[in-house]
Design brief:
This protein has about 325 residues and is mainly α. It has 2 domains: about 10-125, no CATH class; about 175-325, Four Helix Bundle (Hemerythrin (Met), subunit A) (Up-down Bundle), CATH 1.20.120. It has 14 helices and 4 strands. The protein has a two-stranded antiparallel ribbon with strand order 1-2. Helix 1 (about 10-20) packs parallel to helix 6 and helix 10 (about 195-210) packs antiparallel against helix 14. The protein is elongated, with a radius of gyration of 29 Å. The protein starts with 8 loop residues before the first helix and ends with a strand.
Length: about 325
């Protein structure tokens, strides 16, 4: 995990304080999540701050009551007194001790994890089924916007390697622009062609590969599923349990498919290039089966290359680039 620059750390801790204060109970649960023990000094400081706050609030209440009585004694009407009565001074509560400890007392090595968890616990995912103007009035949307706007600016200004995930419920590593465009384009092509499952698997793969704690093996699983979600119904619509492997066997044994790019001298296009790309994705899934000599952990580089291939395959198949004439 990438470190945090000295310039960013104070602002990031301030964001943790502000965000954690929105729900102190979640802050308390975060201590449990990270196996942290709240020091007694934070409890003692909070109790003193709370006592000071309550004493100051009592003073203001007394002053306000005296001022209200003075206004009433002068015979002022209720309409004149009403605005005054609505402005009782309120002293804010001190920061909850669990929130203060998360913001001040934790090691810099877990700050990204704290940020990621706060996003997951306190933010809501956009609901594409609802109009934007409806979503904008919900409490969850307003809170999410408040949380993510300030954090997003911190990440951008500090040139952080992390950004807020599209669902706004976590961090992810910034994706190289070309790959990001390829994945987004493939997801859009799949959705338009009716293969929404392929879009979902591509997005899951990207999330697992570029999340705060990358999971190349899990990302590769989703890569294979993304291609299968298009290729299986396209080439083996009646198969009960099709896989990318059975699709490959079908394409290799069949000579009835053509590729939209023509061959030499205008000959029908061969599907060999598409088959080779599918084979690379399928056979490169090195940890699919455990216990054998070929079981090798999937590297991040391999998963990223597979995601690139899968994006191309999903795009081509969704747009009818392989067909029966």
């Amino acid at each position: 995990m990438e470190g945090i620059s000295p310039a960013l750390e104070p602002s990031l801790r301030g964001w943790i304080r502000e965000t954690g204060s929105l729900d102190p109970e979640e802050a308390r649960l975060l201590l449990i999540r990270f196996d942290l023990v709240l020091p007694d000094s934070y409890r003692a400081r909070y109790q003193k701050q709370l006592a000071d706050r309550n004493a100051r609030q009592a003073e203001l209440n007394t002053e306000w009551e005296a001022a209200k009585a003075a206004h009433a004694a002068r015979g002022q009407s209720e309409d004149v007194l009403k605005p005054f009565m609505l402005h009782l001074p309120v002293v804010p509560l001190p920061t909850h001790p669990c929130v203060a400890f998360l913001a001040e007392g934790t090691s810099a090595t877990i700050l990204w994890d704290l940020v990621d968890e706060l996003l997951r616990r306190l933010c809501t995912e956009p609901d594409p089924a609802k109009p934007a103007w409806v979503v904008g009035f919900t409490k969850g949307h307003r809170q999410t916007k408040k949380i993510t706007e300030s954090l997003g600016r911190l990440l951008a200004e500090s040139l952080s390697v992390y950004e807020i995930a599209p669902d706004r419920r976590g961090l992810r590593r910034r994706v190289e622009a070309t790959l990001a465009a390829a994945v987004s384009g493939a997801a859009g092509a799949a959705e338009s062609a009716g293969y929404s499952a392929a879009r979902q698997h591509l997005e899951k793969s990207r999330g697992r590969l570029f999340g705060l704690h990358p999971d190349p093996s899990g990302a590769y699983d989703e890569v294979v599923r993304a291609v299968e979600a298009v290729a299986c119904p396209l080439f083996l619509p009646n198969a009960q349990t099709p896989t990318l492997g059975t699709v490959l066997a079908h394409l290799r044994q069949s000579s009835t498919y053509e590729f939209v790019v023509p061959g030499k001298h205008g000959a029908p296009g061969s599907v060999d290039a598409v088959v080779a790309m599918m084979a690379a994705v399928w056979e490169g899934h090195s940890d699919r089966h455990a216990g054998g000599p070929g079981n090798v952990p999937v590297s991040r580089e391999a998963a990223e290359a597979a995601l690139t291939c899968a994006s191309a395959l999903v795009t081509l198949l969704s747009r009818g680039a392989v067909y029966r004439p």
